[in-house]
Design goal:
It is a single chain. The chain is of the alpha/beta class. It has one domain: Carbamate kinase (3-Layer(aba) Sandwich). Helix content is 37%, strand content 18%. Strands 4-3-5-2-1-6-10-11-9 form a nine-stranded mixed β-sheet, with helices on both faces. Strands 7-8 form a two-stranded antiparallel ribbon. Helix 5 packs parallel to helix 7. The longest helix is centred in the middle third of the chain and has 25 residues.
Length: 241
């Protein structure tokens, strides 16, 4: 467990953001001021000398599960969801550009006019040059979530940890919104997440992290500052190990 310090506790991190992170007061769409707020936090981490990549979801625009419910074939619904993440990736890159942060948008779906294709060695070279990496379109295949994509990309680029920034400040025994007796875990093992059916990341992502000893820190994105606190090793959220 890292100790709190004025120096970063990690060399390279992958930040997993849900599409809902980009919502403002509306229930759908992108609030660019919110994207700017996230971009400032990401730049602050990069300015500390920490390599950072961001895996983005698309639930603020379209969620594959929603399409399946109305009768869309799952493969096609998932493809629509992947394209939603590309839109969010463009928005985050625009926000990073606005504040002067060098970034590269990398999509697992080939869409050269707006993003680079995923080529591992090229991504590593971008990171070596101090660029923020924005991953979109998951792993480019239906039936796989952006949680699984986050785990895979984190392993491929040699991250020390996955930060999963959510609306909730950690992992609880049950949903703290509906169950006032829910208890928060300070830390929990991968196997216990699977046994208890806790909604941290999907089972494939948890298994991939477990097999490769990739820790996950779950914390609330909040109104700002928590990503830096996590990078500095402060005791926030829940550590899955």
């Amino acid at each position: 467990m890292p100790k709190t310090s004025s120096q970063p506790a990690y060399r390279r991190v992958l930040l997993k953001l849900s599409g809902e992170s980009f919502l403002g007061d509306s229930s759908r769409g992108i609030d660019f001021n919110r994207a700017l707020s996230i971009a400032r936090e990401v730049k602050e981490i990069r300015d500390l000398g920490v390599d950072i990549a961001v895996m983005i979801g698309g639930g603020n625009l379209f969620r594959g599960a929603r399409g399946i419910k109305v009768g869309i074939d799952q493969a096609m619904a998932d493809q629509m969801g992947m394209l939603a993440t590309v839109i969010n990736g463009i928005a985050l890159q625009a926000a990073l550009d606005k504040i002067g942060a060098d970034s590269r948008h990398v999509s697992s779906i080939e869409i050269k006019s707006v993003a680079e294709p995923f080529i591992r060695r090229r991504v590593l070279r971008h990171i070596e040059k101090g660029r923020v990496i924005i991953f979109s379109a998951g792993i480019g295949s239906p039936y796989f979530t952006t949680d699984t994509a986050a785990a895979q990309r984190a392993l491929e680029i040699g991250c020390d940890i996955i930060f999963k920034a959510t609306k909730v400040d950690g992992v609880y025994t049950s949903d703290p919104v509906t169950d006032k007796t829910a208890r928060k875990f300070k830390s929990i093992r991968y196997i216990d997440v699977l046994k208890k059916g806790l909604k941290v990341m999907d089972a494939t992502a948890i298994s991939l992290c477990s097999d490769n000893a990739m820790p996950i820190l779950v914390f609330a994105l909040g109104k700002g500052g928590n990503i830096k606190r996590a990078v500095l090793g402060e005791s926030i959220g829940t550590r899955v190990y």
